[in-house]
Design a protein that fits this description.
The chain contains 4 helices and 5 strands, in the order αββαβαβαβ. By secondary structure, the protein is of the alpha/beta class. It is globular and about 40 Å long.
Length: 131
Amino acid sequence: MSQEEVFQDRQNYYKGRAKVYLHHFQIDNMGPRIIRDSHVDRLDRIFQSEGLSRLNPENYVKVSIGNDVLQQALVAQGETEAFLNGPLNFLNLPDDIRLNILHGNHRVLAAIKRSARWWVAEFYSDGHFDI
C-alpha cells in the first residue's frame, strides 16, 4: 500500500477529536506493541519535567469507536460531527463506554501516574460507516 493510499484510508476512518476522561480508555496489552513499564516511566519523567502537553496534536491518543456510540454521545450533548473538528471540548461518553486504544497506551498509563483526569482522543471508526 502506498503512502497516499494509507493516508486516504486513514482519512476515511477519521471522525475527529475531543477531550475524554481517562477512565474511558481501554488499555490493551495484547496489541502489536507490548506495554513496557520502562516506557511508561520515561513518559512520566517527561510529563513531570515538561508538563503533559496533551493539547499537542502529536500527543493525541488514537482510539476506535463505534459510529453508533459516537452518534449517541453527540446527540446527548446536542452536537453534530462538526463538534469533533472545532475547538477542543469534552465529549461526555456514557460511563460504561471504553475506547480501544490504537496508539497511545503508554501515554495514557503515564498520564494516570500523573493523576491526570483527561486526554485528547482522536476518533477512528471501527469500520461500520453508519453515520
